[in-house]
Structures are given as C-alpha cells and as structure tokens.
Design brief:
Largest sheet: none
Structural class: mainly alpha
Order of helices and strands: H
Helix content: over 70%
Shape: rod-shaped
Strand content: under 5%
Distance between the termini: 111 Å
Radius of gyration: 38 Å
Number of helices: 1
Length: about 90
C-alpha cells in the first residue's frame, strides 16, 4: 500500500487558515469581554471606596455625638445641686 493522499495540501492550508481566523476572532472577543469586566470591576472598587468613606465618616460623627452627649451630661451633673439625702446612682 502506497502513501495515498487523503487531503490536498491546499485544502489543509485553507482549513487551518479558517481555524486561525476563528481563533483570532474568539481571542479578540475574549479580550473585549475582559476589558469590559475590568472596567466594571474598577467601577465597583470605586463605588466600594465611596461607600466605605461614607460609613467611616458616619462612624466618626456618631462617636463625636456620643462624646458631646457625655460631656453635656457631665456639665449638667456638675451644674446641678445634689440632695444629700438622695441615694447615689
């Protein structure tokens, strides 16, 4: 049995060229999707940073408010007169 040609070399080249073109198209599509996902991730990170800053600012304000209320209670306590007969709290 001799070496029988199953496919013509030109047909093989065309097939490989078509496959290469398909792979290049898929690669471009994947790179575009990756770029879109990175942009979306960057936006989510920016949103997270903004939200985190707002939460930290709220926590600072709540701590400052608690401190002001404590100081007000101390000032009111110092300004008031205590009944010596009243039990200590």
């Amino acid at each position: 049995m001799g070496n029988r040609l199953l496919y013509h070399p030109d047909a093989v080249r065309r097939t490989f060229a078509r496959m290469r073109k398909d792979l290049d198209g898929l690669r471009f599509q994947h790179l575009r999707e990756l770029s879109d996902l990175r942009r979306e991730l960057d936006q989510a990170r920016a949103d997270y940073a903004d939200l985190r800053a707002a939460v930290l600012a709220r926590h600072r304000c709540e701590a400052e408010l608690a401190d002001l209320r404590r100081r007000r209670a101390l000032v009111e306590a110092w300004a008031g007169e205590r009944d010596p007969a009243a039990p200590l709290q």
